[in-house]
Write a structure and sequence with these properties.
It is built from 5 helices and 6 strands. It is an alpha+beta fold. It is 24% helix and 12% strand.
Length: 244
């Protein structure tokens, strides 16, 4: 591309230092997600997704927040053949998902449907909490997505998502039974069948009064079989790396 001078003799157009939209900072002090074209996604590859909430929303780790995210996941039911949420966990200011999607477009569409519904539900939660309707932004930026390509990556990611409360050193915040001192109630941990401590062929019972949350059963080899090559996951594992 040929760069031309304007009437003042300055070059305009073309690549140059400092050009383009400035990279803004989020309220938590981190840089925003780069607005680049998402990489090609194969249907055989799960994806780790993170949605960060604005500080104005407050903590998502509450029963109302859990219900809001559950309702948002139900909005993706019609996308079952192209987009499925396999695992999730809700932290104070962000949500982790592990999803399967047919391709890059299906991932975008599924996250759009989930994100819009989730924002509406969380705004309703905040409005009820404060006694005043809230209509502002819920998520601080576009979602972060990392494609998982190997069994080890998937195994580490499942442990990271389901044991993320231990990563943040969150102590037991709930009221029900021994199992709740070991797995995160604000996640899909109760439905996960890959715990070392879970008796083979048996399911954990939902404690009285706990309205659990459905998740899609995985279909990809990496999510069903591949990750198990590196061993089942323990309640006690504390994920490391990153600050999410």
């Amino acid at each position: 591309m040929t760069r031309k001078r304007d009437k003042n003799g300055q070059f305009r157009g073309g690549a140059r230092k400092g050009a383009g939209r400035p990279k803004r900072k989020l309220s938590e002090g981190r840089a925003s997600e780069a607005h680049k074209v998402r990489p090609t996604l194969k249907a055989s590859q799960p994806v780790h997704v993170v949605l960060r909430a604005t500080s104005e929303v407050g903590s998502l780790r509450c029963y109302e927040g859990f219900e809001a995210v559950r309702e948002a996941r139900q909005s993706t039911l019609r996308l079952e053949d192209t987009f499925r949420i396999i695992h999730f966990s809700i932290q104070r200011n962000h949500i982790h998902l592990i999803v399967e999607a047919k391709d890059r477009r299906a991932l975008w569409k599924g996250m759009q449907v989930f994100g819009i519904s989730c924002a509406k539900q969380l705004n309703a939660m905040v409005g009820a909490r404060r006694g005043k309707r809230r209509c502002g932004s819920v998520f601080a930026d576009r979602y972060y997505a990392r494609i998982l390509k190997t069994p080890r990556e998937v195994r580490n990611c499942v442990s990271y998502v389901l044991n993320n409360w231990r990563h943040h050193a969150i102590k037991s915040e709930v009221w029900m039974g021994d199992v709740w001192t070991k797995v995160d109630p604000f996640s899909s941990a109760l439905a996960f069948d890959g715990w070392k401590e879970r008796p083979e062929g048996k399911r954990f019972k939902s404690p009285p009064g706990y309205d659990g949350s459905w998740i899609w059963l995985p279909r990809t080899w990496l999510m069903t079989t591949g990750w198990r090559r590196y061993g089942l996951i323990s309640f006690a594992e504390v994920p490391g790396g990153g600050d999410e």
